[in-house]
Amino acid sequence: MAHAHNAIIRGLNAILQQAPxxxxxxxxxxxxxxxxxxxxxxxxxxxxxxxxxxxEETYIFPDVEEFTGRPGxxxxxxxxxxxxxxxxxRLLAYSSATKPEEYRWKGADGxxxxxxxxxxxxxxxxxxxxxxxxxxxxxxxxxxxxxxxKAQKAAKQAGNIAMLYDIFPLVLGCADKTYEGRCDFPPxxxxxxxxxxxxxxxxxxxxxxxxxxxxxxxxxxxxGPR
Length: 226
What we know:
The chain is mainly α. 59% of the residues lie in helices and 0% in strands. It has one domain (1-161).
């Protein structure tokens, strides 16, 4: 779970660190394709977060409560999801519908304001949920592992071909494999990163915004202070 949360945070950080430096239509160096790629990246990130929390609410939370015999045990994470749900939906709608010429980072109608409206609730939740899981020391670890594996299997089965064009490239590019305590996340066949890079992600400039390459190695950010 912590590895998935780390990927979400890295994606958010990649957006926050680069989006302010993507020129808008009134800037001298405006490039519509750069903005289009940024918006697709943001859209993919929002979809990834939505998918992750759908898996939690549909499979992990109810299974944990049933396994532990503690109804309501996962109520706090559920409530935390509600706190950032509307803001995340706003961001998904903005990134999906906004044309490059309409994009703004600053201002009341800008993307920064939308992200700021929910990002603290989201990141607070991502940390709090890990603390909750770490507090399950009195619960059978093998049983919890089976719940996680069941959820992973269900997530894969619920996926579709479209996810190979948006969510998978983003997850691969946000899964830093160099940090302490790293593991082989996401759990995919070794060949899949090659398939994603050379087929499903080929020609899509959105993945320039990823903070890592296709094999989890951190790379310099594409956009930043000049």
